[in-house]
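Practice problem: Splicing factor YJU2
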Amino acid sequence: MSERKVLNKYYPPDFDPAKIPRMKLAKNRQYTVRLMAPFNMRCVTCGEYIYKGKKFNARKEDVEDQTYLGIRIYRFYIKCTRCLQEISFKTDPQNTDYEIEAGATRNFMALKLAEEQAKREEDDLKEEEASNPMKLLENRTQQSRNEIELLESLEELKDLNRRQLRVDYDTLLEHEKKLKLIENEKTEKVAVTAATTKMTLPNAQPSTTVAKNDSVENESVKSSGNALSLLTGYSDSDEGGESDNN
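Answer key — structure tokens:
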């Protein structure tokens, strides 16, 4: 039985590797590689959206007569998942990105455009400062002023944090809870007293009449007592006159 994996091969004694002819390969040979879509794109033929990260079996080749600082530029060919239209894009080492060439259009990317705009503005500012020394001086003074303001704001924040560390928030919350409890107790007492007065109002009329009768009786007793005192006073004065006559 022969070997299944064929790990060892037989070389005859008269084997001469120099007699084996070399393989002639194409100068710009294409290789099949496995890759993912580097950006979101849309097929121009059928309108199918191809999202970033979708895997493809692509053909890779070197772009002839194009390099960036000695770095090779590669071109990739993929097929649309719906209509099998060929889509090609290549590497862009200058911007560390990819550039679409044919078969599809790249979707709008706000973040990428914002980064490019910021980079252009920074380059323009550097160029202006290099050509105009007064502008460079103004920018430096403005930068130093901004740094001073930033340091002042940081000091204010540090002072605020130090003041807040001195405050005991637990005691403040406890005091606030106690005040709320006292206020609730007062409101409950007021509500209870109001309810009790409402309940006793209908039964209060007989007591008022009894009190009125008692006051009338007291007044009559007082008037009778006054009359008796007057009578006794007159009798005493008469007896005293008779004794003087005798």
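Discussion: The first strand starts at residue 31 and ends at 36. Students who identified this feature from the tokens alone can consider the problem solved.
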